[in-house]
Amino acid sequence: MAAPAVPAPAPLTTPTPSAPPRPTAVTRARRHLPRLGALAFLAAIGYLVIAPLVGLQRLAFEDDARGYKAAFDNPDMAETLRTTAGMALGSLAIALVLGTFLAWASTRLPPRLRLLRVLPVLPIVVPAVASVTGWAFLFSPRPGYLNAALRNLPWWNHLDEGPVDIYTLPWIVLITGFGLTAFVYLFVSAGFGNVNAELIEAAQVSGSSAAGVFFRVTLPLLRPVLVYGGFVALLLGLGQFTGPLLLGRNNGIDVLTTDMYVAVSQSPVDYGRAAAIGSPLLLFGIAVVLFQKVILGDHSRFVTHGGKAFRTGGRPSWVAVTGIVVYGLVALALPLGALIVVSLSPFWSGRIEPSGFTLDNFRRVFQESGITDAIVNSLVTSVISVAIALPLGFVAASLLLKGRRFRVIRAAVDFVVAMPLGIPAVVFGAGFLLTYSREPFILYGTRSVIVLVYVTLMLPFATRMQLSGMVALGDTYVEASRTSGAGAVRTTTEIVLPLLRPTLAGAGALMFVLLTHEFTASLLVRAPTTQVMGTILFDYWSNGSYPLVAAIALVMTLVTSAGVFVAMSVAGSDIFEKL
């Protein structure tokens, strides 16, 4: 029987690959949406930060650079430049010495006195305008309290005034140096925390004394921190405004910032001359920001590796305790004490008479409509500005941390958000006054212009603190959420923001503190109907209502102290180091 025929196998054929579907218009739009969003964000903050500066410089170069000619053909400009540089360098030297000493002293405190580490930071809490007025109440030539006490000593009992004159340049430099010391202290304290203890121990084993270890090992290791902190302090010193305005202006001591204020507060306003006067500050600030970006580079590449943390290796030092306590008494307690005494007195004289103390000045603060309106304006504009700056800072921090696809946009955002930290507030104040007092945005006389300048000044702080929180958070939670199918928006709202809640709350509280005692930019953009606490204090100071000035200064200090307490409660006692 024949076997059944088996059909031959069909020949193998390779299927023809189908062409991939062409992306639709919607798909292409979604693909470019993140880049377009990043560009739109850059355009928004770029206009906010750069447009006022460009507008000022444009006026300075108009009419064959009339603004520069008016500014630098003035025979007094050379003296103003020398005074500005001298004040900045002198205050920098004081801040570097005191800040480094206090940072070292904080590492040599006995365990039960470690709380004293926060004392060198507290002068930041006191508004600059309050601190300066407090020093004036102490050392004005005739009615200053400490001057009156010094004239009872045998060396000066023949004097009718003095021996100290707070309205001279050396004392303005000293007060400015006290104010900058807290910033240097924060930088150097962080540097001490990063020093490897093994290097210190090796030097000690080799027979070096404590002083030798400090000057030959510790100080060279702190050089990068001292350089960077010194640049920041120098920028702040060049941009000082409150001390020179309140103490030096009436005595013929002019710096670039006060000259700018005069140019935009006179009638008619000379924006071109103001821009030319501020150009050295602008150029130096931009140069420092660029230097910082070149040196630091990518934020995410700094990782701490193994090694023993810094320990002093020495016994607790009572010299360190004494130094910190004395600094706290001089830089904080003395000016605040003077404010308290003047605020409780019916008038300011060189004598303290407790029997005449009264609360009438505080009653006036809360009864006079002009002052209460200024307090409300400060609180409202600060809260609104924080509410706007936080989301802007979140977007900027996200781009800096994860925007590697947009290298150019990312670099531009990094530069723009850093500019308000490097350029003095007086320059921004003049620029905003120009930009928003003419078409297309006429906002002069409204709270809106104050909010805009506040948001601009807070961009670096909002970005830096949230960037720090994002780096600490890592990518694990975000990757897990995206792997589970959640989109970017849902991951941000349900994962990232809840985990960043302490960082957001701390950043908001700290920005509120900084804004409630902001004085420089506020003085330039304010109007008679839109005062804030700092500007109303300046008006009463100019009118000679000194007890009322002291009461307003103390109210400002209480508001900022409450903000600091909230910030430290939410974000920890190291909140200032996160800046």
UniProtKB/TrEMBL annotation:
Pfam families given in the database record: BPD_transp_1 (PF00528)
Keyword annotations of the record: Cell inner membrane, Cell membrane, Membrane, Transmembrane, Transmembrane helix, Transport
PROSITE patterns: ABC_TM1 (PS50928)
Classification via SUPFAM superfamilies: MetI-like
Record-linked CDD domains: TM_PBP2 (cd06261)
Coiled coil region boundaries: none
Biased composition (Pro residues): 1-23
PANTHER family in the record: INNER MEMBRANE ABC TRANSPORTER PERMEASE PROTEIN YDCV (PTHR43357:SF4)
Similarity comment: Belongs to the binding-protein-dependent transport system permease family.
Protein's UniProt name: ABC transporter permease
Organism: Streptomyces cellulosae
Taxonomic placement: Bacteria, Bacillati, Actinomycetota, Actinomycetes, Kitasatosporales
